[in-house]
Design brief:
This protein is an alpha/beta fold and 404 residues long. The chain is built from 16 helices and 12 strands. A 7-stranded mixed sheet has the order 6-5-4-1-2-3-12, with helices on both faces. Strands 7-8-9 form a 3-stranded antiparallel sheet. A hairpin with a 5-residue loop joins strand 7 and strand 8. The two termini are 31 Å apart.
Length: 404
């Protein structure tokens, strides 16, 4: 059976996280995503983490399922080839995704003059088109001042590139929305997506712009405490860390039963005239709750505490390093249909995830590895642009295209 996006073709000119992730998201659902790069690789071709031989594990992982075209973009003939790919005829083609600072030959109006219904999604840093990256955007949004230990002074940027990741997924949604519009109206369009706007949108959607304007207050830095309810990290007797989250009245009741603290919870309610079934009230007395519950965890191993919480239906998770996740988490294995073990040429055998979106009406398809740089150059030019073997050979000889 076909994958859900099979037949859709997207040409991608990208670097780093947001645009490559958008393309990969579509590729893992069956779209034919063709990424073009300079011969020898683009800006992110050697991005860390890398192997001992300096092969980028990141690049291979971020481009899973795509086809790779290596081409000399500095020469007019190379530019003409990429232009022809982007504007190639067909109802399921004519879609371009990029976060590069495009040259005049790749501007929307130039491409649109060759294909009227072209769809182009362009990721930029700031809404005015000026440059920005995840770390610089995050610094402006307020989040670094609520990240980290409660007693820390100064900002802490999140090491997870959350705005890049969200922007990439938003780009995939935006392209599919534009393609649906084109199917219904015949109209293509330029879609602009600002990384900073993604951050502002989500910060506002989580209520923090309104909190400043309406309440004239800042969210405090609280470490691992969960804002507005009861939840935090606790240390177990075997020196592991566990994250506990209590968000419902059933959870707090079950926690009292599991820990033997039901009576102490009631005493705490009477002492402070609070109701622990209410999130806000749990937040008010979190310091005393933390101490009570922390004492219980200090007498339990991670395994024993985890089993007790699971059996009671309470939300929890163990803190793990990346290595511990790979070794310990039962879902990070081929027992989970998300993963397959694949041989990534030049890198080795890696547990590789496919798309997390499971369309139950279709079978989960085989996970595809990342391409080698230029692996599909000849195939793309012969099947899409109908170039002869002789022509492709001449392009290789003249340094316009390359393969692995």
């Amino acid at each position: 059976m076909s994958m859900i996006l099979e037949g859709l073709r997207v040409v991608e000119g990208s670097a780093f996280v947001a645009a490559p992730l958008g393309g990969m998201t579509l590729a893992q659902m069956g779209a034919d995503v063709i990424r073009f790069d300079l011969i020898g690789g683009g800006l992110d071709y050697k991005r860390w983490p890398v192997t001992k031989n300096n092969d980028s594990i990141y690049w291979a992982a971020m481009n899973k399922g795509k086809r790779s075209l290596a081409i000399n973009l500095r020469e007019p003939e190379g530019q003409e080839i990429v232009t022809a790919l982007i504007t190639a005829p067909g109802p399921d083609s004519g879609i371009f995704l990029t976060n590069l600072q495009v040259q005049p030959w790749l501007e929307y109006q130039t491409l649109k003059s060759l294909r009227r219904d072209l769809i182009m999604l362009k990721i930029v840093g700031n809404p005015d088109g000026s440059v920005a990256v995840d770390y610089t955007v995050n610094a402006r949004t307020g989040w670094p001042y609520v990240t980290g230990p409660a007693d820390h002074n100064g900002p802490i940027n999140n090491v997870l590139p959350g705005w890049d990741l969200t922007c990439g997924l938003t780009a995939a949604i935006g392209l599919l929305a534009a393609e649906r519009h084109r199917c219904r109206s015949g109209e293509g369009q330029l879609v602009n997506l600002s990384l900073a706007d993604v951050a502002y949108h989500l910060t506002g959607s989580l209520g923090y712009i309104g909190d400043c304007q309406i309440n004239d207050q800042e969210r405090p830095r609280i470490g691992n405490d969960m804002y507005g309810t009861f939840g935090r990290n606790f240390k177990t007797s075997d020196n592991r860390e566990i994250m506990l989250v209590v968000v419902t009245r059933r959870h707090i009741k079950a926690l009292g039963q599991v820990t033997g603290l039901t009576q102490k919870f009631q005493d705490l309610e009477n002492k402070h005239n609070v109701n622990l079934t209410l999130e806000g009230d749990r937040w008010k007395v979190r310091d005393e709750l933390n101490k009570m519950v922390g004492n219980w965890f200090s007498t339990q191993t991670l395994k024993v505490a985890g089993e007790a919480l699971t059996n009671a239906g309470i939300l929890w998770g163990p803190f793990r390093t990346f290595s511990q996740m790979v070794k310990e988490d039962p879902f990070v294995s081929t027992n989970n249909p998300l993963f397959q073990e694949l041989e990534q040429p030049g890198i080795g055998r890696i547990l590789t995830p496919g798309s997390p979106v499971n369309f139950t009406g279709l079978p989960r398809t085989k996970v595809k590895r990342g391409p080698l740089l230029g692996e599909h150059t000849d195939e793309i030019l012969s099947t899409i642009l109908n170039m002869s073997d002789k022509k492709i050979g001449l392009l290789h000889d003249s340094g316009i295209i390359d393969g692995p």
